[in-house]
Amino acid sequence: MHKGRLVLFSGPSGVGKDTILDAVAEKAPEIQKSISLTTRERRDGEQDGVDYYFTTKEKFLDMIENNEILEYAQYGPNLYGTPKKPVDLWLEDGKTVILKIEVQGAAKIKALYPNTLSIFLMPPSMEELEGRLRNRGTEDENALNERLQIARNEIEKSKDYDHVVVNETVDEAANQVLELLQMK
Ligand code: 5GP
Q1: DSSP class per residue in 137-163
Q2: 5 lines ligand 1 (CB under 6 A)
Q3: What ligand 1 atom has the least distance to the C-alpha of 14?
Q4: Would you write out the chain's pLDDT as a tens digit for each of its 184 residues?
Q5: Which residue has a Cα nearest atom 1 of ligand 1?
Q6: How far apart are CA 36 and CA 54, in angstroms?
Q7: Number of other CB atoms surrounding residue 180 within 10 Å
């Protein structure tokens, strides 16, 4: 048994997961955010090794084969996964580790580790979510519509989570997350 704990943090694309996690990390720097692997293209402003480890499909599949990935899922046309080794080390070290993860990956982890705390970040409304995604301007119309369709399915799965936090304001949502983690 490891000493740390794993926290699953999900929510539809555009809901503001990174913004909330950044605010949480600022208030509680001892929390460790896992950096995922992805085969999707890097967006402007994203840094390799900070936002994601950007990789090819071939390397990703090799890592699955070598058991170096804790969980992975396909989201839209791309693969996303959690590197296993750093998470194991942080947990052995007693850290609280947050995985920013979509719903299929979260369900896999929850089945493996039922004690994992799961939090779903909910937009105030679908209209608001669409507005945020459009403002972000990182996807073309097709990709954006695909993300909105995935978002509807994800929101249905929010009932499987231990807690739902509505992202009305950054400060309130971050504080609610910290309260759920009992770090406030
Ligand atoms: P984005 O392309 O917007 O950065 O991420 C798309 C979706 O993939 C988001 O819902 C995000 O939470 C999810 N995601 C990011 N990293 C991982 C991961 O390691 N595993 C899984 N299952 N989903 C992830």
Answers
A1: T-S-HHHHHHHHHHHHHHHHHGGGSSE
A2: no
A3: 3
A4: 568 999 999 999 999 999 999 999 999 999 999 999 999 999 999 999 999 999 999 999 999 999 999 999 999 999 999 999 999 999 999 999 999 999 999 999 999 888 899 999 999 999 999 999 999 888 999 999 999 999 999 999 999 999 999 999 999 999 999 999 987 6
A5: 13
A6: 9
A7: 16
